[in-house]
């Protein structure tokens, strides 16, 4: 299994956010907002002597084995890395800051912050074709075979955990857990869309060749050329279309502005691009 430096850093950042949000915001308030961490919080509430991190490691072994068999070794390998990374980081946090207490008396604010931090971390991991382990593996399997979005798949997978939270931790904590699961699924879907958003750009310019060269040579992107006829002057025009990341589009816009040419640009937001140079279609 190959993981380049950038993806390795992103996976670590994603798992750290999940560990941080769980340990400092969710666990102290007994908010079992789904997932293996939620199950671990429930068990830890009943048996306080059992560390949350150790419980998570034990439960993850079975589920990541299922992930390897059903989804594949690459996904399984990354999931093993991420799940044990989260568990190890929580164990480390328990050693550094033992017996952590709620940071404030406002449970709702801590729920929102905890879910926001965890949701962003999970979205980063899912976007790299991995998962944080536990019920997220079940969600990934649901996503693979039903094409339900990963956020909604997590919502389906975590409903049982929230029901258990209502029984074990109380109705109030259970309602917080349900709210947390709904928020988590929404944040994950929205953040993944933002991570994969692109700009579809169409350009009509008298200096088309320079713009084409800039797109290909400087931005390392390709472009498609169309020819159209202007309705006002009945003249032939070259239309350059390309798909760029947001930063690339900003560079292109600055370059076009520097040309001092009359240029017409239309821009559309694209939520997903599959194919050569982008995400694999397979």
Automatic annotation (TrEMBL):
Keywords: Cell membrane, Membrane, Transmembrane, Transmembrane helix. Residues 221-275 form the DUF2179 domain. It is found in: Cell membrane. It is a multi-pass membrane protein. CDD domains: YitT_C. One of its GO terms (cellular component) is plasma membrane. The chain crosses the membrane at residues 7-26, 32-54, 61-87, 107-128, 149-169. It holds the Pfam family DUF2179. This is DUF2179 domain-containing protein. It comes from Clostridium luticellarii.
């Amino acid at each position: 299994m190959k993981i380049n430096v950038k993806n390795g850093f992103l996976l670590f950042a994603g798992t750290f956010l999940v560990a941080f949000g769980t340990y400092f915001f969710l666990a102290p308030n007994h908010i079992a907002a789904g997932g293996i961490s939620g199950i671990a919080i429930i068990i830890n509430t009943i048996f306080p002597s059992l560390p949350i991190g150790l419980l998570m490691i034990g439960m993850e072994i079975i589920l990541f084995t299922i992930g390897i068999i059903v989804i594949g070794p690459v996904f399984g390998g990354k999931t093993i890395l991420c799940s044990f990374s989260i568990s190890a980081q929580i164990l480390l946090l328990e050693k550094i800051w033992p017996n952590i207490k709620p940071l404030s008396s406002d449970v709702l604010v801590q729920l929102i912050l905890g879910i926001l931090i965890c949701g962003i971390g999970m979205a980063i991991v899912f976007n790299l074709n991995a998962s944080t382990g536990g019920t997220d593996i079940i969600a990934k399997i649901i996503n693979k075979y039903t094409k339900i979005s990963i956020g909604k798949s997590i919502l389906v997978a975590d409903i049982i955990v929230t029901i258990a939270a209502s029984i074990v931790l109380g109705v109030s904590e259970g309602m917080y857990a349900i709210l947390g699961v709904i928020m988590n699924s929404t944040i994950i879907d929205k953040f993944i869309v933002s991570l994969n958003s692109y700009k579809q750009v169409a350009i009509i310019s008298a200096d088309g060749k320079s713009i084409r060269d800039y797109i290909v040579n400087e931005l390392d992107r390709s472009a498609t050329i169309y020819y159209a006829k202007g309705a006002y002057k009945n003249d032939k025009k070259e239309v350059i279309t390309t798909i760029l990341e947001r930063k690339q589009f900003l560079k292109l816009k600055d370059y076009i502005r520097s040309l001092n040419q009359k240029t017409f640009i239309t821009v559309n937001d694209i939520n997903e691009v599959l194919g050569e140079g982008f995400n694999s279609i397979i």
